Amino acid sequence: MKQAVEARSGASAQGAVDGARSTSPAPPYYLPCADEVQLFEQCHANQLAVMLKGPTGCGKTRFVEHMAWRLQRPLITISCHDDLSASDLIGRFLIQHDRTQWNDGPLTTALRSGAICYLDEVVEARQDTIVVLHSLTDHRRSLAIEKTGELIHAAPGFQLVVSYNPGYQRMLKDLKPSTRQRFVALDFNFPPAQQEIEIVMQESQLDRPTCAALVGLAEKLRSFADRGLAEVPSTRLLVATAMLIARGIPVKRACQVALVAPLSDDATLVGAMHDLVDLSFP
Ligand SMILES: Nc1ncnc2c1ncn2[C@@H]1O[C@H](COP(=O)(O)OP(=O)(O)OP(=O)(O)O)[C@@H](O)[C@H]1O
Ligand SMILES: [Mg+2]
Fold first, then answer.
1. Per-residue confidence (pLDDT) for residue 2, from 0 to 100
2. Are 80 and 2 in contact (CB under 8 A)?
3. Relative to the CA of 282, which of 40, 118, 143, 225 has its CA 20 to 30 Å away?
4. Residues with Cβ within 5 Å of ion ligand 2?
5. From the CA of 109, how far away is ligand 1's center (Å)?
């Protein structure tokens, strides 16, 4: 079994969901950019599954963490990959001492405990794995475990959230229409400039003028998508750059290692991006 599961508010998936309430003292910082908080709250109240679409590093995961805290639900995160099987989600019999014992997978744990179950990069999972989610995302809200004969009804508060980056491997991987139409889809993108400045300041504790200059630089770099840059600089990269600057790394060096170098190996593109850094920080 190759599986990446993370549970917040507890040491393990099981530990996290023993109590229905999240115990996280500090709310995960999230600055709303539009009406996504209200929409998510209504989806939660109406038992609707949610799909978050958007480029890497634009705040999808942080948003889910924040909403789980806000709604006081445990959060179980599953990073999807093409080896992920239905059993990895649902559970399996394991040999313990002289007998076999059923072990719930993270999806089943979330169902029983009314957690928010977040499947990150869901398009990476195989169709036969994703299809397991179907009965949970319509009126049935239940999961039949063939191996044990159990039919589990989702506990109140259970919500399925998936995310993916539509730009990434768009041609190779997509969700089936029958899967897509089970979700309310929220489009994410990089925050508007003023919000992005606030976020970078809050996350890095760097001064406002430098954060504003970084965000201005990022906006220019993002136009490089037209010139062949596969992934444009994310809010995550801006935060990393600002953190380095705030800890004493010279601005241009920080931009070089944290903002430009992660984006491309193409010497021409990298050179052009460095020129923009020089212009932004003369
Ligand atoms: N609206 C926001 N409020 C607060 N922080 C934000 C916001 N948007 C982005 N961030 C910052 O950007 C970082 C990256 O965001 P996050 O990890 O949520 O991206 P993601 O969309 O899940 O990316 P990926 O698709 O690669 O998983 C966060 O750690 C946070 O510092
Ligand atoms: Mg994420």
1. 44
2. no
3. 225
4. 61
5. 26
Band (pLDDT 50/70/90 cuts) for residue 176 is confident
Contacts of 96 (CB under 8 A, 6+ apart): none
Cα-Cα-Cα-Cα dihedral of 44, 49, 53, 56, to 10°?
70
Mean pLDDT of 176-190: 93
267 pLDDT higher than 90: yes
Q: How far is the CA of 79 from the centre of ligand 2 (A)?
A: 9
CA–CA distance, 18 with 109 (Å, rounded to integer): 9
pTM score of the predicted model = 0.91
- Measure Cα distances from 93 to 16, 88, 99, 111, 148 in Å: 22, 11, 10, 18, 9
d(CA 38, CA 227): 37
Q: pLDDT of 232-241, one tens digit each?
A: 999 999 999 9
Provide the sign of the torsion angle of the four alpha carbons 240, 188, 124, 160, taken in this order: positive
Atom 6 in ligand 1: residue holding the nearest Cα: 59
